[in-house]
From TrEMBL:
InterPro entries: DNA-bd_dom_put_sf, MerR-type_HTH_dom, MerR_fam. It comes from Brevibacillus parabrevis. Coiled coil: none annotated. GO terms for molecular function: DNA binding; DNA-binding transcription factor activity. This is HTH merR-type domain-containing protein. Gene3D superfamilies: 1.10.1660.10. It holds the Pfam family MerR_1. Keywords: DNA-binding, Repressor, Transcription, Transcription regulation.
C-alpha cells in the first residue's frame, strides 16, 4: 500500500476543494510529491503540513502571491508580527459583530414594544440620557438630503441611530444623537408622557405632534422640559414607507 494519498483524499483531510489545491499548484506555491504512472497527483505527509501552512496564511489574510515569500523567507519575528496584526484585525471584526448583535437585539426589542402598545399614551420613567447636538434648524423647516450629506462624516451609522429632535419653544429645533461619553446635552431622568406613532411625510409628523399636545392639555398635564421627538428610522423595515416616532415630554412631578 502506498503511503501517499490522492488529491481528493488530501482535499477531504484538509476540508478544502480539489479546485483550491489545483489553484495553489497553478500559482506555484504547492506541488505534489510526485505524479504516478496513471497521472494521479500523489501527496505525502510533508505536503499535508505544507498545505496546512498555506491555508493558515490565507486565513491570516496573506495573499496567494505573497505566500511563497512567506514560506521561504519569513523569520520567526515576521510571523509573530503577522499574527499580531491579524489579531488586531480579528478583534476589530469581533467589535463590529458585537455592535451588530446589539443593534439587532435593539431593533427586535423596540419593534416588540411598539407592536404591544400601538397608538397609546403612557407615563413612563426614564433614566437620564446624554445627547450630542448634531444640527439646528428652524422649527417649521424639515431636514433635507443636502443637510445629511454635509453632516455625514459626523455620524457614520446615522440610520442605526435614534435621532432626537428637541423642541424647546424657541422656534429652533435641535437634532441630537445619543452620546454617553461626549454628550453636551442631558435629558433629565423622571416621569415622561410617552407616545409612539407612525408617520409618512412631514405633514403626518406635524399631526403626531399636534395630537400629542392635545392629549397633554386634555389630561391637564404640565410639561417641564422640551418636547422630544425620537425618530427610529430602522423600524420602518416593518412598516413600509412609514417612519416610527416616539414623543416624550418630562412631566411636572406635582401632577403625578
Amino acid at each position: 500500500m502506498k503511503n501517499e494519498i490522492t488529491i481528493s483524499e488530501l482535499a477531504r483531510i484538509m476540508n478544502v476543494s480539489v479546485h483550491q489545491i489545483r489553484y495553489f499548484e497553478e500559482k506555484g506555491i504547492f506541488q505534489p510529491a510526485y505524479i504516478d504512472d496513471n497521472q494521479y497527483r500523489m501527496y505525502s505527509i510533508e505536503q499535508i503540513y505544507e498545505l496546512s501552512h498555506i491555508l493558515l496564511l490565507r486565513r491570516l489574510g496573506v495573499s496567494v502571491s505573497a505566500i511563497k515569500d512567506c514560506l521561504t523567507a519569513f523569520t520567526a519575528d515576521q510571523y509573530q508580527q503577522l499574527l499580531r496584526q491579524s489579531l488586531l484585525e480579528t478583534n476589530a471584526q469581533i467589535r463590529k459583530l458585537l455592535e451588530l448583535q446589539a443593534f439587532i437585539q435593539k431593533v427586535l426589542r423596540e419593534q416588540h414594544d411598539f407592536a404591544s402598545r400601538p397608538d397609546s399614551f403612557q407615563i413612563k420613567r426614564y433614566e437620564p440620557v446624554r445627547l450630542m447636538r448634531w444640527l439646528e434648524m428652524d422649527e417649521q423647516a424639515h431636514i433635507q438630503a443636502r443637510q445629511l450629506a454635509e453632516q455625514a462624516r459626523l455620524v457614520p451609522n446615522l440610520f442605526e441611530t435614534d435621532v432626537h429632535y428637541l423642541y424647546d419653544g424657541s422656534g429652533t429645533v435641535s437634532l441630537c444623537l445619543e452620546a454617553p461619553e461626549s454628550g453636551n446635552i442631558t435629558l433629565p431622568g423622571g416621569s415622561y408622557l410617552s407616545f409612539q406613532g407612525l408617520a409618512n411625510g412631514d405633514a403626518a409628523t406635524d399631526q403626531l405632534i399636534e395630537r400629542f399636545y392635545e392629549y397633554l392639555a386634555a389630561q391637564s398635564l404640565v410639561a417641564t422640559g422640551p418636547l422630544v421627538l425620537i425618530e427610529k428610522s430602522y423600524l420602518s423595515l416593518f412598516s413600509g414607507q412609514h417612519l416610527h416616532y416616539e414623543l416624550r415630554v418630562l412631566l411636572d412631578a406635582a401632577d403625578l
